[in-house]
């Protein structure tokens, strides 16, 4: 399972892409709103830091507006993937953009039924929101497992991007449940790096090396 970074912070994108572990970036209107500057300029700068797909979301709620914004975003950089919310208008926008060669990520997906619709519309990716399902007392990882099962017949190339990831455990469980990608906030990537036994082991190696005669 590949790891994307779920942020629009250029500082964090530079920091974690430098480690060589980040294969793409996802943004959403909330994340873009936290940053200063023009939306398209931010996307262009992100593209200059990562080699992978850069997800940028439309703001229109009608399919024609989504298609217009989607084409504008796709023109910003060839690696842009257009995020489109899972609504009837969104499905129409995805099925209009797909044959025009625009890659799409159907976002705000919370069920296998929604994922099936997105795949049939021609979405390149579907983004189930694990944490937000957990937030209302259901099992977000079970939604990933269901989506992986219903898309496993090989009819579609739609990839599952586990989103709304809140912990290292979510990342591991999403991989086990069949996600192709997890998009992970910088804070959670940072939590994935250390382990007390790594730290203790390193300290012992260094202490022993200093005792060498
Ligand atoms: O990619 C969508 C994700 O950013 C939402 O995360 O934590 O706001 O539910 P969260």
Description:
The structure is a single chain. The protein has 213 residues and is α/β, with parallel strands linked by helices. 50% of the residues lie in helices and 16% in strands. The longest helix has 15 residues. The protein is globular and about 75 Å long. The chain starts with a strand and ends with a helix.
Brief sketch in words of this structure:
By secondary structure, the chain is of the alpha/beta class. Helices cover 50% and strands 16% of the residues. It binds SN-glycerol-3-phosphate.
User: Mean pLDDT, rounded to whole units?
Assistant: 98
**Structural class assignment:** alpha/beta
Give the H and E element order. EHEHHEHEHEHEHHEHEHH
Largest sheet, strands/sense/barrel: 8 strands, parallel, barrel
Give unreliable regions as ranges.
Answer: none
Rounded to the nearest angstrom, the distance between the terminal CA atoms is 45 Å
Q: How many β-strand stretches? A: 8
Strand order of the largest sheet: 1-2-3-4-5-6-7-8
What small molecules does the structure contain?
Answer: SN-glycerol-3-phosphate
User: What is the alpha-carbon Rg in Å?
Assistant: 19 Å
Beta-strand percentage range: 15-25%
- Note the total helix count: 11
**Overall body shape:** globular
* Amount of helix: 40-55%
Task: Give me the secondary-structure topology.
Layout: E1 2-6, H1 10-17, E2 25-26, H2 29-33, H3 39-49, E3 54-57, H4 63-76, E4 80-85, H5 88-97, E5 104-109, H6 112-121, E6 125-128, H7 130-135, H8 140-150, E7 159-162, H9 168-177, E8 181-184, H10 186-192, H11 196-210
Bound molecules: SN-glycerol-3-phosphate (G3P).
SN-glycerol-3-phosphate is lined by residues 6, 26, 28, 129, 131-132, 163-164, 183.
């Amino acid at each position: 399972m590949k790891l994307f970074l779920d942020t629009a912070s250029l500082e964090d994108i530079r920091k974690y892409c430098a480690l060589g572990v980040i294969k793409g970036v996802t943004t959403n209107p909330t994340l873009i709103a936290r940053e200063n500057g023009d939306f398209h300029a931010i996307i262009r700068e992100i593209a200059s830091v990562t080699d992978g797909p850069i997800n940028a979301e439309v703001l229109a709620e009608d399919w024609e507006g989504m298609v217009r914004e989607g084409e504008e975003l796709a023109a910003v950089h060839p690696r842009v993937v257009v995020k489109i919310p899972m609504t009837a208008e969104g499905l129409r926008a995805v099925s209009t953009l797909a044959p025009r060669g625009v890659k799409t990520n159907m976002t705000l997906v919370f069920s296998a039924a929604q994922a099936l619709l997105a795949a049939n519309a021609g979405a390149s990716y579907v983004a189930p929101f694990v944490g937000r399902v957990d937030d209302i007392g259901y099992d977000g990882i079970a939604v990933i497992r269901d989506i992986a099962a219903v898309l496993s017949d090989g009819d579609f190339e739609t990839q599952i991007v586990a989103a709304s990831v809140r912990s290292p455990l979510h990342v591991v469980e999403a991989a086990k449940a069949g996600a192709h990608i997890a998009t992970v906030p910088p804070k959670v990537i940072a939590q994935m790096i250390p382990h007390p036994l790594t730290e203790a082991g390193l300290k012992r190696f260094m202490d022993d090396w200093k005792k060498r005669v």
